[in-house]
Amino acid sequence: MVDLSTVITAGKLALKARAYYEGLNDRNTAALLAEFDRTRDEWLIELKRAVAAPEKRLEEATAEQREKLNEVLEDPGFARVQLNYGYEAAREAIDERRGMLAYAALGAADAGMRGMSIAEVARVERTIRELDPEDVGALAHHERPPIGQPPPDTLVTAGCMMPILDSGALQLWRVTKLGEGVLRVMDLYLRAVTPEDPTK
Q1: Are 148 and 171 in contact (CB under 8 A)?
Q2: pTM listed for this prediction
Q3: How do the domains of the chain map onto residue ranges?
């Protein structure tokens, strides 16, 4: 027969353990919320840094382009694209890539103003989630890659580049329509990171 005092002691230990783990959970929740707040603040800072890039374009935009931009900004689909960029940035550990995502978020609006559909902008957003800053730079420099030098595997896997000729030693590649869309959305970023390049 189990001693009643043993049951009581075990019950007290169980209650103490529960209180401990509940307190631990509360602390973890508070830490997680604090991290979310910090990440959100850093994301807003990244957006503020990047927002200066399209200001000149907005000043030079035609009335038709401004009207198109308003349409894009009011589209619920575009709002979801922006949320996706923010969500990806919240998960990102590398500062450089988080900055790239800020430019991508603004570049989506810029590309929409210049004629890209919401469906195209959304497809590009899904693709950019697979890319790192060096991939975007490589894509910009591989529009005409040297014969026999394939692009990074990441760009091929993401659907940004495809071979048009592969006969052993001779290889020719081209940027796909999706890759062109990525370059359009990332144009502001590429100009920011390579301002000295006159081709950008």
Answers
A1: yes
A2: 0.70
A3: 4-141+176-193
Q: Residue 199: what pLDDT? A: 43
Cα separation, 87 vs 39, in Å, equals 10
CA distances from 142 to 62, 78, 94, 146 (A): 31, 29, 24, 8
CA dist., res. 78 & res. 82, Å (int)? 6
Instruction: Fill in the DSSP letter of residue 158.
Output: T
Q: pLDDT by residue (tens digit) across 159-176?
A: 999 888 766 666 778 889
Q: Rg of the chain over CA atoms, in angstroms? A: 25
DSSP assignment letter at 129? T
Q: What is the largest CA-CA distance in the chain?
A: 89
How many Cβ atoms are within 10 Å of 185's Cβ, its own excluded? 28
**Nearest one of 96, 105, 94 to 128, comparing CA atoms:** 105
Q: Print the SS3 string covering 65-81.
A: HHHHHHHHHHCHHHHHH
**Distances in Å between the alpha carbon of 25 and those of 16, 36, 65, 87, 118?**
14, 16, 51, 23, 41
Cα separation, 189 vs 174, whole angstroms: 22
Residue environment code for 135-166, b if the CB has 16+ CB neighbours within 10 A, otherwise e: bbbbbbebeebeeeebbbebbbebebbeeeee
